[in-house]
Amino acid sequence: MSTPALSKPVVTRIAPSPTGTMHIGTARTALFNWLFARRHGGQFLLRIEDTDRARSTPEATQTILNGLKWLGLDHDGAPVSQFEQAPRHAEVAHQMLAQGSAYKCFSTQHEIEAFRETAREAGTSTLFQSPWRDTDPEEHPDAPFVIRLKAPRKGTTIINDAVQGDVTFRNDQLDDMVLLRSDGTPTYMLAVVVDDHDMGITHVIRGDDHLNNAARQAQIFAAMGWDQPVWAHIPLIHGADGKKLSKRHGATGVEEYAAMGFPAQALRNYLTRLGWAHGDDEFFTDAQAVEWFDLEGIGRAPARLDLKKLENLSGQHLSVMDDDTILAAVQDWAARAGEPPIDAARLLPAIGIVKEASRTLPQIVERARFALIDRPITPDEKAMKTLDTVSRGILNELTPHLQNASWDRDAMEGVIGDLAQSKGLGLGKLAAPLRAALAGRTATPSVFDMMLVLGRDETLARLTDAVGPEH
Predict the structure, then answer these.
(1) Largest CB tally within 10 Å, which of 63, 123, 460, 470?
(2) What single-letter DSSP state applies at residue 133?
(3) Which of 150, 247, 309, 385 is catalytic?
(4) What is the mean pLDDT of residues 86-96?
(5) Within this chain, do residues 407 and 365 fall inside the same structural domain, yes or no?
């Protein structure tokens, strides 16, 4: 099923709180919003919900910006600070007060708790019902007050959700929530609605842990006579054990996945597929994701994070990425992971022969190690065993033949194959000491691939070092 034509330009948003790392769930929500906006030629906006002044920091805000940039999710326009919109939020609360859809409540915290305690003892609802809801303003005391929404007490509030279907809430289960605190600061519920309205948000795509909030927020939209956005509440990401994703499941922050060496393309592909489907397609490009993405493809069941699937997709992306793109990604990974700078001139020629067998960027570097190390090569214990006296003698005999051979794969295979045959050996018997001489290891890329990457002079120098002075 495809998404039907929309009546007005699409505007989506991501609205993270800058209180720590960028959670992988936030990243997926941002991705879904970005894909939907780009699919429909709309806008994807960023709002920083920084009203918690004690926990919101510039560093955490920068972490969000860095995470979105690394993921390749470009937002339209400058980020909006929710805290800076506080005067506008208060203005709307007073507008609702003036039009009768909100009221002043002078009840103290002690009175509210006393009401709830009495209700608990009586076995009745503990939803606070303010005695000030219908009080004549003439009877208001000169005392601190909050502004509460005058919510409907009868009937139902229905959220027409593009993912969850119609979700019904009984109004008698929703209290008159506070819109403006006694110190004049707006609550989260009010701020979100005003910001979404003022930013022209047409689709609110977010985690289903906000579904209950939608009922309350819908009442504010209705009280102000504003059009509601299309609601789309997506299931949360769970760990492999089916429980809500947390630190005990491993990496939960975007920067952790970047430091682990997954290319951003692979993580985008994986997160898109995590809770959304387009037939049986698993591996796809950004262009295909933008072309295919719709809200109907989002499932209702929680998605489970599977690191092996991510690694598999990562390997598929690396195999088709061009070498220069991989080099840039490796250098970015090395900087993030605190690794020493990597010699680009040495690594680039080796990428083409190692990327097919690699699943992460660190694996690219590890498999290309032969091209990054300096002479003299020190073989590890296993490789050293292949460099016995007989093998060294054969390598010594091979060197002058390679010196005069054309430096291409067919010529090298011919020279080495002929020598092996003359010794009554299979090619594999020569490959092991060659690997040890060229890379210092027994598990390496193809011997001929390594020789082509290293070049004639470096290859012969490594063979000479391995043979040793006794030959």
Answers:
(1) 63
(2) T
(3) 247
(4) 98
(5) no
